[in-house]
Amino acid sequence: MTDSASPQTLPLHVMRNERIADGIHLFEFRDRAGSPLPAFTAGAHIGIRVPNGALRKYSLCNDPAERDRYLVAVKREINGRGGSINLIDTAKPGDELLVTAPVNDFGLPPRAQDFLFIAGGIGITPMRAMIWQLQAENKRFRLYYLSRSAETSAFVDELSAPEFKDRVTIHFDQGDPARSFDLRPVLAERKNREHLYCCGPRPLMEAVREMTAHWSPTAVHFEAFSDAETHKPTDRPFKVRLARSGAVVDVPVTKTILEVMRDHGLEVPSSCETGTCGTCRTRMLAGEADHRDLVLTEAERGDNIMICVSRARGDEITIDR
Ligand code: FES
Fold it and tell me: Is 60 exceeded by the pLDDT of residue 9?
């Protein structure tokens, strides 16, 4: 995670590293002297410099009204790049870690009154903060929490409380695709001008994107928690022609267009770097893109590309940079 304007970095104390479900740990961070932390709004994430030096981003899951602590729930990603495993296995209460101040690419529009949340597995974390905030603002929400099993899911007990009975649907598929929840009836129509927020594995988000093709794009919001999911074993290197300077740069399989541009000293606005926030949208002037974002509509895909995740289908594309 890298922001175009890098957020402030804070040395914070690990107060808690507690297992709350199979493979999920809750971390609490506070200032050593008890000073208030930078405020955040629901949907915000922080970056944590984990003990092995990697920077990982995690959604805040506590009440945004709290100013004295940050809470994140971290899933031990067996097939990830090792950051979450290192954090869970190594960080202990009393340790100090560098944490970037909250950034929000997944915020709730202040004037909207009705919200529909779809959380897949650990994607529940930003929704927990959203529920705190919406309850404080007397706004309405519905939550569909789709996961493998109660044992492997965070916050199941609190979301099963009687107060949420009419607003929260929790579904476990036991890892069997045949038992997955059918979201089509839920998404068939946009009720009460709802804003939809979806966070979870990329296949879930892609399915929701497809099922909401008839919704206003401004009412559908996604957040990805792993940029690793956007790389494919079949990726090939390609060239990008930068129309404004005429320069041609090589994009190897190990890098994104955005990273290569940065390597060449070209500043491009970016934030999420997982294809969900829309910041890095770039006009594409020639060539064909392999789109991997959750931002662009089909109509926009002909001449736009999100350069933090998407690649070229052929040997070269030309972009308006
Ligand atoms: S930086 Fe967020 S979509 Fe590219």
Answer: yes
